[in-house]
Amino acid sequence: MQSTPYPTQNASQPESETQLPKTTGRQWRRIARNWELYVFIAPAFFYFLIFAYGPMYGIQIAFRNYVPTLGFLGSKWVGFDHFTRFFDSYYFWDLIWNTLSISFYELAIGFPIPIILALAFNEIKTGFFKKLVQTVTYAPHFISVVVMAGMIITFLSPSNGILIHMLEWVGINPPDFLTDPRWFKTMYVLSGVWQGAGWGTIIYLAALSGVDPGLHEAAIIDGASRFQRLRHINIPTIIPTMTILLILNVGSMLNIGFEKVLLLQNPLNMESSNIIATFVYKSGLVDAQYSFSTAVGLFNSVVNCVLLITINQIVRRTSQNSLW
Amino acid sequence: MHSTAIKESKGDRVFLIANYIYLTIALIIVAYPLIYIMSASISNPQYVGSGEMWLFPKDITFEGYKRVFQEEKIWSGYLNTIIYTVLGTALSLAITLPAAYAMSRKDFFGRNFFMGMFMVTMFFSGGLIPSYLLVKDLNMVNTIWAIIVPGAASIYNIIVTRTFFMSTIPRELEEAAQIDGASTTRLFFTVIIPLSMPIIAVMALFYGVGQWNSYFSALIYLNDETKYPLQMILRQILVLQQMSAETGSIVEASTAEALSDKAEIAALVKYAVIIIATLPIIAIYPFLQRYFVQGVMIGSVKG
């Protein structure tokens, strides 16, 4: 900006300065010159305004007795009635326990496996085998949740599922996975790992590809073994990525992949498959208790936000990495 | 990557072998169910049901596919899904690309405001019921709009696309266009879009696969079966029927014998239907894997 300005600019500058503060004048010119960019962003702006912020406005029915014919504002304000009804209900602790235990279970198994897999991929040279394993392990990511549920049901079908046959072959008397509440969570978590672990490696592989090869060369010359290099070069490289993903996972603790739970749920395994999200769906859309289930859903969102902020604070205190 | 000039020690060799074994096990675990389904869909259902067919097809038959193709619901579901996917993806791109481009421009006053406004939706949402009521109030229930509009844009995809624009489109291009007097719209359509085909492909794939695989919005917004997408039909065949068949056979053990023949055919149809529904994605996936991976990687740079 030090170059000599054009005479015309030089002449016009003092004028605008007397009328408006300098920056505002420039800003207005910038806005006017780029008016098309506002047209560009308009569809997204209205999309989010209507379909993301619109429902947020609708949250108020959690505090009212919503009657569709009266509208949002016309329905009676009842404060926290729906919330206390939920907290006092006999199923409250069951819902919380199921939701949290599935989340922790999923985190404990589903979080480390992609990391181990990515580190293993990183150790072997690019070639046919690596490509084959990667292509195959990424593929289940693209299977729809309905097909996934269908596969689980078919494979574990007590009369002719192949996994049941296999357990019988090795002499194990198979439990009834689909209807036994004790097996629901394991079934949910392990099928999720099968589907997502391969795809989950990509983000770590991206981080690992950024390692300076010089580091490895220097370590080799110093006589470091492969394991030592993995431990002291590769793992520290992916720790920031791990931290961010961990924060995001904890922040969505109560957002279980509920579409799959809904598909695998049946009256017999309800005891351990009834989670907050499926409860909101059933009481809200099946039983049409709009206000009550909105309150339950809002409770879920608020807990998520609190968890996200808390874990982010903790991580920020203990390490340099955090979301914000 | 690693220098091979120095000979590997014994410990390294063991480590590497263990590594290969681990990956081979992972490969088998992931590949087995996929191979099994393919084999089961063309095997005699008797052998599938009894477990005699456990890897390679036995007594090959195409009865399952034949029955699937006779099913009218599958055809209409397929057609609906294609329509929803094509229109939904087009709408998603029409929202995502211009918005991402606008936000990639450093001289765009207000980009932080828009970014903040969009980002909030990543962490907080109105929830299921208010969203449903909104769609209902907009009179979109039981129309195609309920399927393609409410989930049309994702902030994650907008950020990924914006990152791509910022890292690959040189600033000089925009300045040159402005000096030439070309409008931003012209610049966008004649220069930016042709330069950005890789990211457009990635976005089309992300949105397209998402739409192809989704069932939940159809479950809550559609009540007319002729409008059901494929995944809803699959849900009926794979999830709902199976459940009733299973509990049925548990309750009435005496009639199980008579039912088994029917059940076997039903199982065969299930495998065939899984293949048919997933085929388009399986068929394109190996060719486009690179683009998918690229999309995730661009996202992780900023993530």
UniProtKB/TrEMBL annotation, chain A:
UniProt KW Ribosomal protein keyword: no
Keyword annotations of the record: Cell membrane, Membrane, Transmembrane, Transmembrane helix, Transport
Localization annotation: Cell membrane
Main location: membrane
Coiled coil region boundaries: none
TM region(s), chain numbering: 37-63, 95-121, 142-167, 187-207, 235-258, 290-311
GO cellular component: plasma membrane
Membrane topology: Multi-pass membrane protein
GO BP field: transmembrane transport
Stretches for region Disordered: 1-24
InterPro entries noted in UniProt: MetI-like, MetI-like_sf, UgpAE/MalFG_permease
PROSITE patterns: ABC_TM1 (PS50928)
Domain ABC transmembrane type-1: residue ranges: 96-311
One Pfam assignment: BPD_transp_1
Family under the similarity heading: Belongs to the binding-protein-dependent transport system permease family.
Protein name, UniProt field: Sugar ABC transporter permease
From TrEMBL, chain B:
GO cellular component: plasma membrane
Membrane topology listed for this record: Multi-pass membrane protein
Keyword Transport appears in the UniProt entry: yes
Gene3D superfamilies in the cross-refs: MetI-like
GO biological process: transmembrane transport
Domain ABC transmembrane type-1, residue spans: 78-283
Transmembrane segments: 20-42, 82-101, 113-132, 144-165, 186-209, 268-288
Keywords assigned by UniProt, alphabetized: Cell membrane, Membrane, Transmembrane, Transmembrane helix, Transport
Cellular compartment(s): Cell membrane
Similarity annotation: Belongs to the binding-protein-dependent transport system permease family.
UniProt-recorded name of the protein: Sugar ABC transporter permease
